[in-house]
Design a protein that fits this description.
five-stranded mixed beta sheet; Bact_solute-bind_prot3; three-stranded parallel beta sheet; D-Maltodextrin-Binding Protein, domain 2; alpha/beta
Length: 339
């Protein structure tokens, strides 16, 4: 009996040790490599796109830079891996990337069947439709018999089918492998309507031959909570990604910006002190330095700053905050407290 208990104890200890090692695997790999490998969308204006010199910009791109800043105190230690919608999850599962930040919708099947986790939602979105003004359509419910361009391997195909079936409308699917192929086909007149997340509609419209010839219809037909994705069972890494988002939200709520963060280090507000690391050891709890959030804000800024310059009023897209406003302003973005 004693030998059996010893054997069980040794087995449990080994299991705990293995779990602990696994839980730190991604952070250790990133530190040893010296760069964060981030899966990104190479063609979605406002969220992820490189210029001719290979400089990446976008809301999702800045989220990757924020993680890099938290780890390395440098937002530029990121290697962006361009991925199609079809290949994005496989690249994460195989270890080709450390985190996927590519306008990916959190769904039950992805959360439970792919061995992946969605630690945070950095953009609340919904699927919509774009049509030419000459089509004379003011509502998606007037699209009966229309041909609709959509991208393969995305949630848009299922949402499209659900919407037309629920409204007893007939339609024809014209599907393509990539977002670029899909929109080019629509712009060339190969289909009557183009459907994707509303954020994508505004981004893609900028690429049209004549952007003013197209309108986004008012209907939003689905919930598309978009966010970063990590591999399942690496709890520490998931915490780092999750709290990167919460740090940017809390900074906005507390009025901490890229410009004033150094001044805010002198604040007596206990929430600010905990967030910026002048009180407590909250960074150490996730394997980082205690000034992890200061680093994020200093190099990237708060969530509102990132939103406005990439997709908001300071950008070409001019998207309203809407659901992505802070909870204190009627939105859904809510940073959990650092305490």
């Amino acid at each position: 009996m004693k030998k059996a208990l010893v054997t069980i104890a040794i087995g449990l200890a080994a299991s705990v040790a293995a779990t602990a090692a696994s839980a730190q695997a991604t952070l250790n790999a990133v530190k040893q490599r010296g760069t964060l490998q981030c899966g990104a969308n190479p063609s979605l204006a406002g969220f992820g796109v490189p210029d001719a010199q290979g400089n990446w910009t976008g809301l999702d791109v800045e989220f990757c830079r924020a993680i890099s800043a938290a780890i390395f105190n440098d937002p530029n230690k990121v290697r962006f891996i361009p991925l199609s919608a079809k290949d994005r999850f496989t690249a994460l599962q195989s270890g080709e990337i450390d985190v996927l930040v590519r306008n990916s919708t959190a769904t039950m099947s992805r959360d439970t069947s792919l061995g992946l986790d969605f630690p945070a939602i950095n953009y609340f979105d919904g699927q919509g439709f774009m049509v030419r003004k000459t089509l004379g359509v003011a509502s998606a419910k007037e699209l009966s018999g229309a041909s609709v361009c959509t991208q393969q391997g995305t949630t848009t195909e299922l949402n499209l089918a659900d919407f037309f079936r629920a409204n007893n409308l007939k339609y024809e699917v014209v599907a393509f492998a990539t977002a670029d192929e899909t929109f080019k086909a629509y712009d060339a007149g190969r289909c009557d309507a183009f459907t994707t997340d509303a954020s994508g509609l505004y981004a893609e419209r900028l690429k049209a031959t004549n952007p003013d010839d197209h309108i986004v219809l008012p209907e939003i037909i689905s919930k598309e909570p978009l966010g970063p994705v990590v591999r399942h069972a690496d709890n520490q890494w998931g915490d780092i990604v999750r709290w990167t988002h919460f740090a940017m939200l809390n900074a906005e709520e507390l009025g901490i910006t890229k410009a004033n963060v150094d001044q805010m280090l002198k604040s007596d507000n206990p929430e600010i002190k905990r967030l910026l690391g002048t009180e407590g050891k909250y960074g150490e709890a996730i394997g980082l330095t205690n000034d992890w959030a200061y680093r994020i804000i200093k190099h990237v800024g708060n969530y509102g700053e990132s939103f406005e310059r990439n997709v908001g009023q300071g950008s070409r897209l001019k998207i309203q905050r809407g659901q992505n406003a802070l909870w204190t302003k009627g939105g859904l973005q809510y940073g959990l407290p650092v305490r």
